[in-house]
Amino acid sequence: MHRTYAGPGGGRRGVGATAAGGANLPALRSHNTALVLDLLRTAGEPGISRLELAEGTGLTPQAVSKITARLRADALVTEAGRRASTGGKPRTVLRLVPGAGQAVGLHLDRDELRAVLCDLTGAVVAGRRAPLDLGSGAQAVVEGAAREVEALLSEGAAERSGPVPDGAPAAIAGAGRSVPVLGVGVALPGPLDHARGVLHRVTGFPEWDGFPLRDALVRRLGMPVVVDKDTNAAALGLALGEAVGGADTSFAYLHLGTGLGAGLVVGGAVHRGARTGAGEFGHQVVQLDGPPCECGDRGCIEALCLAAVARGDMAEAARVLGTGAANLAGLLDIDLVLLGGRTVAAHPDAFERGVGAVLDARARREGSTAAVPVRIAPGGARGVAEGAAQLLLAPLFGRAEA
Amino acid sequence: MHRTYAGPGGGRRGVGATAAGGANLPALRSHNTALVLDLLRTAGEPGISRLELAEGTGLTPQAVSKITARLRADALVTEAGRRASTGGKPRTVLRLVPGAGQAVGLHLDRDELRAVLCDLTGAVVAGRRAPLDLGSGAQAVVEGAAREVEALLSEGAAERSGPVPDGAPAAIAGAGRSVPVLGVGVALPGPLDHARGVLHRVTGFPEWDGFPLRDALVRRLGMPVVVDKDTNAAALGLALGEAVGGADTSFAYLHLGTGLGAGLVVGGAVHRGARTGAGEFGHQVVQLDGPPCECGDRGCIEALCLAAVARGDMAEAARVLGTGAANLAGLLDIDLVLLGGRTVAAHPDAFERGVGAVLDARARREGSTAAVPVRIAPGGARGVAEGAAQLLLAPLFGRAEA
DNA sequence: ACCACTTTCGCAACGCTGTTGCCAAAGTGC
DNA sequence: GCACTTTGGCAACAGCGTTGCGAAAGTGGT
User: Fold this and answer.
1) Dihedrals φ, ψ of B349, to 5°?
2) In sequence order, what DSSP letters do the residues of B303-324 get, joined into one string?
3) N or C: which end of chain B has fewer CB within 10 A?
4) Strand D closer than 7 Å to the CB of A91?
5) Which domain of life is it from (chains A, B) (predicted)?
6) Are B324 and B281 in contact (CB under 8 A)?
7) Which residues in chain A have their CB less than 8 angstroms from residue B264's CB?
8) Residue A76's closest CA among A123, A126, A34, A124?
9) pTM
10) Closest to A21 (Cβ–Cβ): which among B28, B35, B288?
11) Contact between chains at B369 and A31 (C-beta distance less than 8 A)
12) Is residue B339 within 8 Å of residue B352, measured between CB atoms?
């Protein structure tokens, strides 16, 4: 008895409305259901009571009761103990059932493929790694990726049924009815079209120009596929994670690895822009007529930052990165800056301190306003793949687009 | 028989939901009504038929019929002729009644106060100008502003009744039942808190620090007041105007006058950030360790740009401005850049060309993507005051916040 | 042990939303 | 003048959150 909740590409602004924005009763229901699910997700292990859900959503307790009753009927939510009484009937604690759905996250890095299988809460159930050669042609890469996904799903199926006594068929064992897989999220660097799932360019591999990656994977795998930039996936994963405050937080994830890019989260949703072009942080010019950059311009922050890294001058690299972060923070009034990527991971303290110093200095100049906090993004190397899985999970919780 | 539509501060994300996000039937209704009103507003003089509204909103024709029936009962909408037949009953054309509501826009500039009275479509019905001395103390300025608003409203009342034959009482003449005034929007430079309507600082006048401008005006005038930065008001006015494409367009309004600031519109709504700090464009650093700026930092775009202007080197000023615009366009993937302010107005061609050249060059480097178009913002000196009035009008059309 | 009280939460009736089925109105074109 | 097309209102309907009320499940005093 599975009903349909807001699926991928469902909602644009608030209510999971039609493309044009008109909202009807099913859309209203999806919206409120997603809101409740998001609070349940955020509450995590301890769980949350109906009345707390009502308070958190602004819905009446009765509406929450009806919504949670549907969710329980669909086995997405269970009752899990009760709170201590405050003089009356104790509140029943509800919890999201993590295993009620899964999604695959795929990270196609320059030379490596990472795949993770995540449950509804975003926790990793199984993971795989494989070498990746983008030069072997689009079809071969698609085929290889599809095989990894299939292998991951069978691992997951074994995992799902749990430690089974003797040779009982996996499909029958435990609570092991087949777990619905929502789809595959794919994250990769470079410019692309998130809405259509088409790559624009892959640096160094012109044969990929304009390749319709999503459609190819949908045909091969027969399940929903969403494609996005690696920085956006990482930012989405962070937005839904513990490092970031509430559901309405705005922050920037700055990724410094072989290149420099950013993922922007505004009001709790990833901001991609109409052409999935947002977050181009690396070619921000911070030195007019400065040293030439690969891109053809001069004084790009990426060129300056990477040059400093190459010299081993991490303090200067952090100062340059901090300048760009301060520019960004001033433009968007964000709440937080998170740093990630291989280079940052190699010198976390230097970057956290250096970037923070620039933001502190700016806040001090402006007067009363508190400085934008800077932290190292948790999650590490697997963060992008986990975020890619969230491309399918997030819509369930009303975190689709900006 | 006036019902309540989405008022100021009503909706945050899409549906005019509660603070927490939960949506109920009245919220759904407000949302759809606002959607219909926005299409009616956009259609303007020619008008729009019910079926076109249905197509535009995604609602069913019957739902549109019900909504427009309510709007007609409330005298916000009238039938205005019919379309040519295509072989059946011709479509009835509906039009927004401009005079069904008014709002006051107040622009407190450095040395001048501008006040405009706008109808529902944003058209100026009446306007006033007066000298302004921020040094005369907060109470005196509030009192002066309030007197201008009152004077404007009586002018408007005369205007409303139209050319009346002989000495008929204005309240009876024509369609002249009293026009509801939605409130006053106030725009002024400098950091402030849009949500609370409190000023943080007014450069050069420390006695204004932390002044609760909104509450003071509400007490004095007894009507709703919304306060915002001048650049945000200008951007809002442009977002609802003809210069900007659809309701979902994202653009930046760059204002170069005595200072340099920006108003950001993302997805059709003004982006202010949690602390109304967004749009600080002028102190973006584009020249590391460059010449010192008033703010205490070095290489700020404002310092470089204004220095070039002072030298009379408009080409260089435009190039610097264009660099900042390109940085911004890359970060947010916006659709359009609009330029305004006294300095731009004095040399429109030089700035439009110069900024455009930088954006074109970047687009060419990136390959296929078309360059972000650059235009001079229409509206001129009165644009900010008109945008301030839109602070009250926009919520009616679902254009509250981001 | 019992009772009064508090608090949670589901059932039932309700108002209001957009939706669907149907039909009158108002045109065109043969 | 008739057949056809298209618009748009009326009426019945399903489904949303809301309200009123009562059962369930505790605490705390007697």
Assistant:
1) -65, -45
2) HHHHHHHHHT-HHHHHHHHHHH
3) N
4) no
5) Bacteria
6) yes
7) 331-332
8) A34
9) 0.90
10) B35
11) no
12) yes
Looking at residue A243, its pLDDT comes to: 80
- The CA dihedral of B347, B349, B354, B360, to the nearest 10 degrees, is 150
Residues of chain A with pLDDT under 50: 1-18, 162-176
**CB B186, CB B213: distance < 8 Å:** yes
Per-residue confidence (pLDDT) for residue A173, from 0 to 100: 35
Distances (CA, A) of A118 to A176, A245, B28: 16, 22, 34
- Express the helix, strand and coil content of chain B in percent, nearest 5 each: 40, 20, 40
DSSP code, position A190: S
| pLDDT tens per residue across span A235-290 | 999 999 888 877 889 999 999 988 999 999 998 899 999 999 999 999 999 999 99
> What single string gives the DSSP state of each residue in A106-134?
EEE-SSEEEEEEEETTS-EEEEEEEE--G
Candidate from B13, B201, B335 with C-beta closest to A14: B13
The tens place of each residue's pLDDT in chain B, 402 residues long, gives 334 444 333 333 334 344 568 888 999 999 999 999 999 999 888 889 889 889 889 899 999 999 999 999 988 999 888 888 787 788 888 999 998 999 999 999 988 999 999 999 999 999 999 999 988 889 999 999 999 999 999 887 765 554 443 333 333 333 445 788 999 999 999 899 999 999 998 888 888 999 999 999 999 999 999 999 999 999 999 999 888 877 889 999 999 988 999 999 998 899 999 999 999 999 999 999 999 998 889 999 999 999 999 999 999 999 999 999 999 999 999 999 999 999 999 999 999 999 999 999 998 887 767 899 999 999 878 899 999 999 999 999 988 765
Which residues, in sequence order, are CB contacts of A164 under 8 Å at separation 6+? A170, A173, A174
Q: Nearest nt to A25, CA vs C1'?
A: D16
- 3-state secondary structure at position B58: coil
Is B296 within 8 Å of B277 (Cβ atoms)? no
For chain A, the C-alpha Rg in angstroms (whole number) is 22
What's the 3-state SS for A16-60? Answer: CCCCCCCCCHHHHHHHHHHHHHHHHHHHCCCCEEHHHHHHHHCCC
Please tell me the distance from the alpha carbon of residue A338 to that of residue B114, in angstroms, as a whole number.
43
Find the helix packing angle between B348-366 and B314-332, rounded to 10°. 40
- Whole-number pLDDT of residue A17: 42
Residue B4: per-residue pLDDT: 43
Q: Which residue's C-alpha is at the least distance from the C1' of D28?
A: A87
Rounded to an integer, what distance in angstroms lies between the CA atom of residue A320 and that of residue A358? 9
Q: How far is B370 from chain A (nearest CA, A)?
A: 11
A63 CA from D17 C1′ (Å):
6
What pLDDT sits at residue B379?
83
DSSP 8-state code for residue B285: B
| Domains of chain B and any CATH numbers | 3-98 (1.10.10.10), 100-233+384-397 (3.30.420.40), 246-377 (3.30.420.40)
**How far are the Cα atoms of B84, B93, B94 from residue B46, in angstroms, in the given order?**
13, 8, 9
Contact B17 A18 (CB under 8 A): no
Choose the closest CB to B369 out of A275, A295, A304.
A275
pLDDT value of residue A160 = 54
A214 token code pair = 């999503």
CB count within 10 Å of CB B165 equals 7
CA distances to A309, A317, A325, A364, B81 from A312, rounded to whole Å, are 5, 9, 21, 29, 74
Q: Is the CB of A69 under 7 A from strand C?
A: yes
How many Å from the CA of A86 to C1' of C7?
8
